[in-house]
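Weekly puzzle thread! Below is a chain. First person to post its structure in token form gets bragging rights.
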Amino acid sequence: MTDDEYSCGYEEHVHSDACYTEVLICGYEDGASETPADSAEEDGEAAPAAHSHTADCYQRVLTCTLPEHTHTLECLADITADVETPADWDEQSEGVSSFWSDAMTEIAQRQLGYTESAKNFTVDKALGETLAQAHHYTRYGDWYGNPYGSWDVMFVAFCQHYAGIPEDVIPQCASLLQLRTELENAHPEYITPGGSEATPGDIVLYTNAAGEETIGIVTAYDGANLTVVSGAVDGAVAAVTVAEADVTNTIRVLDAYGVYAQTGASDGSEELSFDADAILARDGAVAYIVWQRPDSIMPAAEDDDTLTAAAATPQYDSEDNLKLDNLLTSTAISINQGGTWEPLNNLASIKDGTQVQVEIVYSIPANAFKPGGNTATYTLPAGVYPKVDLSGNITDSTGTIIGTFALSKKSPTVTFTFSNDTSRAFTGTFKFNTTINYAETGGDGQIHLGEKTYTIEPEYSLNTKKEHTLSEDKSKVSYTVTVNAPNGTHDQTVTITDRLAENTANGSYDTSSIKIDGKPLSEYTGAAITYNEDGKSFEITGDIIKWNGTVMKIQNISYVTNEKFALPAFPKLAVVLILFGLIVWQFNVATGLGCLVAGCLWIFSWFSEREDLKSKILLTLAMNSGTRIPILFHDKEFLNKVLDVLEEVMKAGSIGNKNITVSISNCDISGNAKILTDMGISQDR
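Winning reply:
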């Protein structure tokens, strides 16, 4: 290849003799006297001989302007190639149906033929520098925030997003484990075993030809085989034929839409039940039973949630839109209990990150709108802002559509546009699903919805960074560990673990130098240091994993993989060297013997390195942010045992106030978590 074909911007170059110039440094001209003549005559001495340049008069100086550079696989990568923008992604959903199943099918088919970038990639040197092991850029990874990550699951998440499926209905994930776990926790009714119930637009998890589980979107099903559009099929989006027997799970997008459509149309004031037969599909048309209640809103009983502000004087914003903030008749925040949204009582506590449904009922008096106006707004309280853009229809108390609403991601303002006769009094209901967010409340943890107040139980997360400097005599290393808790720690104890990865030096901590925020530990109540001589273990406490100074929430792990190291190629030149030694032996024994020994040592070194790498396996925790946390194991059987434990922990999401300690050096798992008992692993002794 020529230098022009590389993207590094360098020319491959190794300095040669031509790169150096002999520069005169003696300070004399050739033939000149080394001592002034008049000085020599005053001393009565003969004038010195003329100077003649020798080799000592010159210095070899590098005058080449090119840096030394050897091309590697990374030099071929162009991180600007094929990069897309949100505007490019938005085009994928233009003109698609608002019906989720049809939208999923349409968007998936639009992706057919897309291939991961051949020029834009990163190299994981731990796995070997070959193009087959590089991580290539995709639009789906970039959209998700992990441009070079495994993208079969992110491809489906991309289609979900642009089909308009809310994350709190079907999660948008980067790994199968995360998707399966979150969906089974939030909506287990939407995921079914096998593929017999799959319809176009549904998501299926299946075993591919390589025997690996992957994911895709159904576009057709003939009763025996499914046509599925999947990502990362030999680096491309492709339609594959999947036998029903190879489908492990079906995620029922059709069912999810039916329930969501019903929930959005219902005013939620009466109980509604229906079974799967209420959603009928024939010839591609889908009919839904939508709950309607003909009764008007009844006067409030003494203990109900009707707001006393219902008869308030209409108010308007700066654009003369009617404000609904003081026209509410009832509000509610509900949580999902076994598939049913159950409203919480006033002053109830809600755990940070909980999926909830927010409902407001409003009553608009006659002639409340300004002349010619039909738009109203409502300001949502902090803590329940939507996590995705939302829009849809609004209904009156009879279930009749009377307009539309629009709600932007992370915005507090809902805009209602009414199409009914706004000169007459009417009532309406608005609902949406979201995730509770403590950080939005500014630290007080309060949600004020109408006349109700809810308290968020915060869960803190830690961001850590470690920096170091080495003293000039290289005898001391000074570390600065920065720990940031965006949501605060809320009076909970914080444990910071600082570990030297490979401590081959003989040394000790200078305990007097350890300070927190510039102050010695003695100034902090309850602060203490605990030393771990092993330094080769990680600990799981609650929903936190601690390893090598890094604190990770279990929910932030996308997937876990174990990978073998690439083995070095056999040194063929060593064989050539040995053969050369045998030939030279006949003429020069010393040289021949040297070649034989060098060739044999070369092969022995290759064999030793190969055997060492064969015994090592890399466990990698891939985070949602794209960060990869590698942990080195030497015992494959013990690694498999650790993977089993991690799988159970990730399924559970937390082990409560219990703990699990994994000692890599001792190949031992201990702790007091119930998961260990269930797996037959002995607990703390």
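Puzzle host: Confirmed. Bonus trivia for everyone else. The mean pLDDT is 77.
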